[in-house]
């Protein structure tokens, strides 16, 4: 599978930071630092435009270090980039910490995972098959 990328930033192409990493790190494409106040969200540009093959999506996910150390995360996690989208990849970051957080030009702000997906035929039915779980959800199995 090939991922085609137009890179209109001054950053290097996204890359996997370890041999078995599932996600490649994506950097911001900003000229000046951006400060996110507590609970503030902003759309951060990347300068990247991608072309995925049909049947694939790109998932935009938080970087765990940013989330743990600085309270920065991707708001619509995971964000989905469809195979037919050709616009710039933007990342909605939110600051969940109690202090302002500065995003520096070229900083790694998220990761992108490429995933195959299915497009099922949708069929309306009158009933679903029975299972042991049934409609149980939202903590129905307890805490332990």
Provide keyphrases for this structure.
single chain; 144 residues; mainly beta; Deoxyuridine 5'-Triphosphate Nucleotidohydrolase, Chain A; 4-stranded antiparallel β-sheet; 38% strand
What does this structure look like?
The strands form 3 sheets. The protein has a 4-stranded antiparallel β-sheet. It has a 4-stranded antiparallel β-sheet with strand order 2-10-5-7, with no helix packed on it. It is mainly beta. The protein is globular and about 55 Å long. It is built from 1 helix and 10 strands; from the N terminus they run βββββαβββββ. It has one domain: Deoxyuridine triphosphatase (dUTPase) (Deoxyuridine 5'-Triphosphate Nucleotidohydrolase, Chain A, Distorted Sandwich), CATH 2.70.40.
- Derived from helix and strand composition plus strand pairing, the structural class reads mainly beta
Shape: globular
Please summarize the sheet with the most strands: 4 strands, antiparallel
| Ends distance | 42 Å
Q: If you compute it from the alpha carbons, what radius of gyration comes out, rounded to the nearest whole angstrom?
A: 19 Å
Helix content: under 10%
Q: What name does the CATH topology carry?
A: Deoxyuridine 5'-Triphosphate Nucleotidohydrolase, Chain A
CATH class: Mainly Beta
Order of helices and strands: EEEEEHEEEEE
Low-confidence stretches: none
- How many helices? 1
Based on the coordinates given, report the CATH architecture: Distorted Sandwich
Read across the widest sheet, the strand sequence of neighbours is 1-4-8-6
CATH homologous superfamily label: Deoxyuridine triphosphatase (dUTPase)
Average pLDDT = 94
């Amino acid at each position: 599978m090939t991922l085609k990328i137009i890179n209109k930033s001054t950053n290097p192409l996204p890359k996997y930071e370890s041999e078995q990493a599932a996600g490649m790190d994506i950097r911001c494409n900003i000229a000046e630092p951006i400060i996110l106040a507590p609970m503030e969200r902003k759309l951060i540009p990347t300068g990247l435009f991608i072309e995925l093959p049909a049947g694939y999506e790109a998932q935009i996910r938080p970087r765990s270090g940013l989330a743990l150390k600085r309270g920065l995360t991707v708001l619509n996690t995971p964000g989905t980039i469809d195979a037919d989208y050709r616009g710039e990849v933007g990342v909605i970051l939110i600051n969940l910490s109690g202090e302002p957080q500065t995003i520096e030009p070229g900083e790694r702000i998220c990761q992108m995972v490429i995933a195959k997906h299915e497009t099922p035929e949708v069929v309306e039915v009158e009933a679903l098959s029975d299972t042991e779980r049934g409609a149980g959800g939202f903590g129905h199995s307890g805490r332990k």
